[in-house]
Design the sequence.
């Protein structure tokens, strides 16, 4: 089974289409699955197509400005209790995880790009609601070096986020996945960026990925819903 996790990027209250990590230039979402750019409506339309169990949200304003919007995240979690939300809001400190203990279907993503306190990754109890995202852009690792090399810092779920491949036609970074899995095969590794088609999903699964984060190929119809349903079973 391969976890297929839709990605929703939000800027200024609307859903946008991520391309190459250049956030200031992201256009509004255009999708075959929804006519809306309102987050809750987009999520509702996605669920009508396929009952995804997880959904990844990148709150781009929060990531860049360091401002959490917990009321908004809590509202989404209440509106869609059947979905486990993975939310990247640029958290920097352990205190940002406090809401997770109160909301069963909320997981906070700590991106290496913004994470200031890596000790939060080794704090007892945080692993249950914390997901680490190792971020790359312009072929360089973003964040503290030890986040990329020290297995002791890795929680049970880790995303390999190659921003150079987001919205591209380059394919997923399978070499990076294989290198990381060799260091910690017990970690559930998730690929983000570059998924183009069914063949990429199969390669990711065969390479040992626990799941993939998908946006462009989902919304432009490059991967049909029947294929995703089969791989998720």
Sequence:
């Amino acid at each position: 089974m391969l976890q297929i996790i839709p990605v929703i990027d939000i800027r200024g209250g609307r859903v946008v289409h991520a391309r190459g990590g250049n956030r200031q230039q992201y256009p509004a979402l255009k999708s075959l699955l929804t006519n809306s750019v309102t987050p809750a409506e987009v999520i509702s339309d996605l669920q009508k197509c396929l009952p995804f169990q997880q959904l990844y949200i990148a709150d781009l304003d929060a990531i860049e400005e360091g401002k959490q919007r917990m009321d908004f995240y809590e509202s989404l979690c209440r509106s869609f209790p059947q979905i486990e939300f993975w939310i990247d809001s640029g958290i920097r400190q352990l205190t940002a995880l406090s809401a997770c203990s109160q909301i069963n279907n909320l997981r906070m993503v700590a991106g290496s790009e913004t994470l200031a306190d890596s000790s939060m990754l080794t704090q007892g109890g945080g692993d249950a609601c914390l997901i680490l995202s190792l971020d790359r852009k312009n072929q360089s690792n973003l964040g503290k070096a030890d986040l990329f090399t020290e297995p002791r810092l890795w929680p049970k779920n880790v995303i390999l986020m190659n921003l150079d491949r987001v919205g591209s036609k380059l394919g997923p970074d399978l070499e990076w996945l294989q290198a990381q899995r060799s260091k910690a095969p017990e970690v559930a590794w998730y690929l983000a960026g570059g998924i183009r088609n069914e063949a990429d999903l199969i390669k990711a699964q065969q390479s040992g990925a626990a799941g993939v984060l998908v946006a462009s190929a989902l919304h432009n119809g490059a991967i049909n819903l029947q294929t995703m349903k089969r791989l998720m079973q």
